[in-house]
Write a structure and sequence with these properties.
about 325 residues, Peroxisomal Thiolase, Chain A, domain 1, about 20% strand, 2 domains, two-stranded antiparallel ribbon, about 30% helix, alpha+beta, nine-stranded mixed beta sheet, binds coenzyme A
């Protein structure tokens, strides 16, 4: 990579409405004790009716742009990582651009490229890889990467095996090659997938769901998952990918200041930390408060880690994630 890629703004948005484990006890046959011991989750946040993934993403985007000192009209690319877009068309990126007042011709390089992509929970890491490659061909690019999810819209609140796990949130970063005001340099990214495992996590509602006016929504529209198979794959893939990215950058685990894994389940987070042999004080977790917010977990965790003082600009940070597809990946910041 000839041109460096810097993160110069970070923001998040957490919907105010909270659903605690005790709230879920009233909806399904579950208990705070079961959820806490199996997942670590105590509460999650859900969007109000009429507030969508784009609205939550917009708030996170505004916070990231403010910190970067970037005006919306300076943005050249908007990439949105989501598996719960507002619509199949238009893209959530275009909806956010519209809400930011960005229009054709307002970008520094002329038009603004907007698109969504779906790498499920690995979306933020995939987005970092996308951004640093765009910067190689467009060194003047000012990229807004948003990860936003409205998973509650595809959660069956009568399925106890699913509804306790997920929540809604958004996070965003601004990336560019200009080091002025940089928080971290994006040193490296690795992205992987195994499409033969595509049935382990599914969310319907795409064109494979054939509908006509008045069709009844069936179970295939909601999140479904083979929990234990996903658990095992998650631990293996995040551990291996993290070691690969450290090795190819000649960085030891001891040199890392902070490890931020995908926030799906505290047991998975602990298992990855233990397998890596990393000091548990360097492993960040906030899944207790939000559940799994898919692509949004990493930027939300970065922002929470920063607010808690655990994450500071310039620290060596390893991000890692896994998700439906299956997809997985790791990114190194410094
Ligand atoms: N409350 C109470 N009981 C529940 C429950 C709930 N919310 N959900 C499931 N159960 C029951 C099951 O029905 C099962 O009962 P049975 O033994 O009578 O059939 C029992 O609890 C054990 O279920 P099991 O699936 O074996 O539990 P587990 O230890 O595997 O934990 C998960 C389940 C989902 C928490 C765990 O597999 C997991 O976290 N997997 C990974 C999920 C993930 O990260 N997904 C995101 C991908 S990005």
């Amino acid at each position: 990579m000839n041109h460096p890629c810097y993160i110069c703004g970070l923001g998040s948005c957490i919907p105010p409405r909270v659903m605690t484990n005790h709230d879920l006890e009233k909806l399904v046959d579950t208990s705070d004790e079961w959820i806490t011991t199996r997942t670590g989750i105590k509460e999650r946040h859900v969007l109000e009716n009429g507030v969508n993934a784009s609205d939550c993403g917009l708030n996170a985007a505004r916070a990231a742009l403010d910190e970067a000192g970037v005006r919306p009209e300076e943005v050249t690319h908007i990439f949105v990582a989501t598996c719960t877009p507002d619509y199949l068309c238009p893209s959530t990126a275009c909806v956010i651009a519209g809400k930011l007042g960005i229009s054709s011709g307002s970008g520094r390089m002329g038009n603004v490229m907007c698109m969504d992509f779906n790498a499920a929970c690995t979306g933020f890491v995939y987005g970092l890889e996308l951004a640093r490659n765009v910067i190689q061909t467009h060194p003047d690019a000012v990229i807004l990467l948003v990860a936003t999810e409205a998973l509650s819209r595809r959660t069956n609140f009568s399925d106890r095996s699913i509804c306790v796990l997920f929540g809604d949130a958004a996070g965003a970063v601004v990336l560019r090659s200009d080091p002025a005001g940089a928080l971290w340099e994006l040193r490296d990214v690795l992205c992987s997938s195994d499409g033969s495992l595509n049935e382990l996590i599914t969310i319907g509602g795409g064109s494979a769901c054939q509908i006509s006016e008045g069709s009844v929504v069936g179970p295939e529209w909601f999140i479904s998952m083979q929990g234990m198979a996903v658990f095992k794959h998650a631990v293996r893939s995040m551990t291996d990918e993290s070691l690969r990215v450290l090795e190819r950058n000649g960085i030891s685990l001891d040199e890392l200041d902070l490890f931020i894994p995908h926030q799906a389940n505290l047991r998975i987070i602990k298992a990855v930390g233990e397998r890596l042999g990393i000091d548990e004080n360097k492993v960040f977790a906030n899944v207790q408060h939000y559940g799994n917010t898919s692509a949004a977990t990493l930027p939300v965790a970065m922002e929470d880690a920063r607010r808690s003082g655990a994450l500071k600009p310039g620290m060596k940070v390893l991000l890692t994630s896994f998700g439906g597809g299956m997809t997985w990946g790791s990114a190194l910041l410094a």
